[in-house]
Amino acid sequence: MNDNILNFVNLASPRLGTRVVEFTDDFFGDVSRMLKDEDPIFIPDKYDNHGKWMDGWESRRKRTEGNDWSIIELGSSGEIEEIEIDTSHFTGNFPPYASLEGIYSKEKPKFDDDWTSILKKTELKGDKSQKFKVKSELINYVKFQIYPDGGVARLRLNGNVLYDFQKNKKDIYELSSLNLGGKIISYNNAHYGDVSALLSEGRGKTMGDGWETRRRRTPGNDWIIIKLAHTGLIKKIEIDTAHFKGNFPDKASIQCALINDTSTVKKLIDNSVNWKEILSSQKLKADNIHTFSNLNESGPVNYVKLNIFPDGGVSRLRIFGSLTI
Questions:
Q1: Which of 11, 204, 275, 298 fits 242 for a cystine, CB–CB 3.0-4.6 Å?
Q2: Are 303 and 225 in contact (CB under 8 A)?
Q3: Which tens digit of pLDDT belongs to each residue from 22-81?
């Protein structure tokens, strides 16, 4: 069994609400494409009014002094631990260098504000995904610069959401929400779609906007483990199968646990078979929001495991609860 492990949340993902708020130029490729969650593609014969269509941000050839840049507002504030700059399919038109700076600001920062360097001016290669280990302070804006111009397929800022629960007090929170700091730790299969969609806001837009496993041809069931944004008492659970009609799971159950020491993710996965069952196996329907509030007693928890039987697709999982210290 191939247990997939995720260490971080992509703070640059539009699923969090991240967006470009200012940029110099995107003549050849819309700057927003750089933040797309999907892997970049190449369509050989696709052209538009500006020339060759590319799946990423691409500026025109600079004929003046200076360089191109963009300012990006993160959907949730957090700390960056890894930067991925992907120049896939950009071969003769990638930027030779790039840098990234960050800032925490209550309003949109200016280019010349007091930014903190996260990645110094660094050499890039064409048609290649390059990852850089970093450690940023708490930020909610980044300034991404390319030198002097060119194309970047994807920018991913892998790290952790840091939500201030003390400043935003509520009786009930969506503890599984990506925007609050919920994150997927591991899953056994995600052949279709993007697993992060499972914890995103809103209902799925299409069948591709959710977690879907391949058709199971062996005994057993599929599963996914989520770390909640904060330890809490679970009050309500929603399982949404939006757009999944001929491929929704027949049944689902949810286990939970309070884990103080996760020495390894493998240990977490192995022990999860013995976690408390807060939601016993429930029959699911196609394209439907299933709400469960009559739950088994569990006490404070910070991890949940969604089991689907035997396989299929789930658009959204929402875990609602109150905070515990």
A1: 204
A2: yes
A3: 999 999 999 999 999 999 999 999 999 999 999 999 999 999 999 999 999 999 999 999
233 token code pair: 């008492």
Choices 3.40.190.10, 3.10.580.10, 3.30.70.20, 2.60.120.260: CATH for 173-323: 2.60.120.260
Going by C-alpha positions, the residue among 240, 229, 236, 221 that lies closest to residue 1 is 221
Q: What share of the chain is helix, strand, coil (3-state, %, to 5)?
A: 10, 45, 50
Residues of the chain with CATH 2.60.120.260: 4-161, 173-323
Using CA atoms, how far residue 209 sits from 60, 62, 200, 224, in Å, is 32, 37, 10, 16
CA 91/CA 322 separation, integer angstroms? 51
Tell me the backbone φ, ψ of residue 313, rounded to 5 degrees: -125, 140
4-161: which CATH architecture?
A: Sandwich (2.60)
To which residue do tokens 């194309």 refer? 151
196 in Cβ contact with 187 (< 8 Å): no
Q: What is the pLDDT of residues 203-225, one digit of tens each?
A: 999 999 999 999 999 999 999 99
